[in-house]
Amino acid sequence: MKKIILLTSLLLLSFGIFNGSVLAHDDSREKSTNAKQSEKVASKQNKNKEKIERKLSKIGVSFEEVFDMGDFYYKNEKIVVNILKDAGKLKGENKKEKYKKVKHKLTKLHKKNKDSVLFNEVSFSREELNQNLGSFYDVNSSVGFSENTIIWLDSENNRLELKTNKLSDKNKKRLNKDYGKMLKINIDPSFTTNFKKTNHVTTVGSNAYKGREADWNKLGAGLGIKWQTNGERNSCSTAGTVTKDTREFLVTAGHCIEDVDNDIVYQWDSVVGAVHLDAQASGFDLGLIQINNNGIERKVSNGLFLYGDSDGYDAGLTGTDTPLQDERHCKTGKTTGVTCGDVTKPRLEDQATGQIQIEVTREETNAPQPYLLAKGDSGGALYDPDNNELVGITSMGILDYSFHGEANQAGYVGYFTPFEEVANKYDLTLYTNPTARGL
């Protein structure tokens, strides 16, 4: 896996609309080589994952339950199983018995499928690592970490990794003593994570087919939304529709709707609803817009806008998933359309913002258009291109590429809010029915 060094500022990916000038819009109906290759990679990865799911189902265990006793990640198309060396850390006889069955089943699967299923015995489960990640800054608040600090889950090496621009020898020794081999510390004086919001110009695209920047009765993922902040127009993308009790919401990034005049949001030229939630304060860049019919009649759908179709959406969201390291995923957004990359950090927390993120990196940096995302893609969907399961919500990126003649507008490293985690936290249900439903 290529080591990524953060050399530029992290920029939130919303942008404004004014003066009728053009920055960028997605006008491609053609599936790129990047997307075609990614569908093939994702298909192979999922086939190997399904081998594990079938074995686990025979003993009544779900894929996600294994996170209590191990972890998974990908090595190219091969799936790697990490299982605890023993059951000593597990509490209760039921869990210990389940662990024995899981380890037995997956060991046998590995022996019969060594070309596609790899196997490791490890010291820490994903759940234990994530618990320590989630509490790290609070537990170690006396260290006084700088704003240029991040910590993330490294499934491949079965540990947490901390990167910061400064840390005293005393605090480094203390952390090494407290966490041992669970934590790797990397001190780089040049490392920076400087989050900034910037507004830029755009306009509506002029595609012949129904595009992202158009009014949709059936709401879904990959569409454009607009609002005003102090009279200036701004725009972002959508990640799908969700329900909570009897209410329906359009999903976007929280930073997109944190300061909206009169809480009114448009999709695209007609009112779609009102700001309901900006969850950034809770550590997740999630935004919810409560849908209403004040503009045009709206419906919730599982629509997934990828390349555009004269009849509407060209795909549909089928469910949700938790990201694994090195798993191939794609994002769809109003600026750069469909682009794909690998999960380089399945769970990351930034000290400056406290946001929980998934890091995705596009490795083809020598491609004619090497970017993964650009300003305006915020709020769009990160999804599995093989089965169209929703994985995340586009949040931010390292923007160091020119895009449509403008410098530092696009980048090949992106950060996404984990959808399953926020759905569980806020009791949200993704709408996956192929039949759209009225309000």
> Any idea what the radius of gyration is?
22 Å
> Which structural category fits the helices and strands?
alpha+beta
Distance between the termini: 46 Å
The backbone outline, from C-alpha atoms, is globular
What's this entry about, in short?
By secondary structure, the protein is an alpha+beta fold. It contains 5 helices and 28 strands. Among the domains are: 69 residues, no CATH class; 68 residues.
Q: How is this structure best described in words?
A:
This protein is an alpha+beta fold and 439 residues long. Among the domains are: 54-122, no CATH class; 128-195. The chain contains five helices and 28 strands. The chain has a six-stranded antiparallel β-barrel. A six-stranded antiparallel beta barrel has the order 10-11-12-15-14-13. Strand 11 (232-244) and strand 12 form a beta hairpin. Helix 1 crosses helix 2. It starts with 9 loop residues before the first strand and ends with a strand. Residues 1-9, 15-27 and 195-208 have low confidence and may be disordered. Residues 227-422 form the Peptidase S1 domain. Residues 1-24 form the signal peptide. Keywords: Hydrolase, Protease, Serine protease, Signal. InterPro entries: Peptidase_S1_PA, Peptidase_S1_PA_chymotrypsin, Trypsin_dom, TRYPSIN_HIS. GO terms for molecular function: serine-type endopeptidase activity.
Which short descriptors sum up this protein?
Peptidase_S1_PA_chymotrypsin; globular; 28 strands; signal; 439 residues; protease; serine-type endopeptidase activity; six-stranded antiparallel β-barrel; Peptidase_S1_PA; 5 helices; alpha+beta; 36% strand
